Amino acid sequence: MSFAAFTTAFLAVVVSLAQPPAPASPDLRDLRWVRASVIALGPEAITLKLRDSEITLVRDAATEIVAADPATAVAIGATVEAHYLDRKGDRRAIVLIEDPGPGDASKRPQMSVRGTTPRLKWGALSVTSGGKTRRGLSFEKKSRLIDREGRLLATGKDAILKTLAQDADLLVKYQQSGGLVVEGVDLGGNDNIVEIRLLR
Fold it and tell me: How does pLDDT run across 40-95, given as a tens digit for each residue?
């Protein structure tokens, strides 16, 4: 190897080592979501009106907008479904869905998870986000699978599992059922899937 080639290779290694590591994907296994109307809008925040309260979310270029025209989707007066991270009061919008369909404004936040399906099992759904996996999401007869625009694709475990592909990119809304208590010991409840929205 010539001296010039060696120098070039050496500099390439030094430059690559000097680069900061790529940021890790955020862990989106524990999101909250609300259906609300937009009452205030700024370049870095959005304020939503729930049934009996208000909530302000930070938003940035990483916030995903699900709409026919993302550039104009979020406006004052619009109804949105907002999925967000809540870390010690720091609420950051992850997904904003324009015109989520008929329904009342949320009274309180519900639970969701954003990620991909690493594997499909017959009894439950797993979702991977930020290198970690959220397991044990249970299907119900009323669990729904919809596409990105909200069109119904399947209802119930059997139909959903026949339609859903492994490694699908999705957003899952779920509810916790009450736990079984045996001799004073809470054995825990189920996380029941309400709706799966395919994002990709």
Answer: 998 899 999 999 999 999 999 899 999 988 777 789 999 999 999 998 889 999 99
**Is the pLDDT assigned to residue 9 strictly greater than 80?**
no
Handedness of CA 49, 50, 51, 54 (dihedral sign): negative
Q: Which residues of 108-137 are buried (b: 16+ CB within 10 A; e: fewer)?
A: ebbbbbbbbbeeeeeeebbbbbeeeebeeb
Strands 90-98 and 64-66: parallel
Domains and CATH numbers, the chain: 31-108 (2.40.50.320), 112-198 (2.40.50)
Amino acid in the structure at residue 103: G
Q: Of 1, 124, 149, nearest to 68 (Cα)?
A: 149
Alpha carbon of 36 to those of 1, 153, 156, 164, 199: distances in Å? Answer: 65, 25, 27, 29, 21
Higher pLDDT, 183 or 80: 80
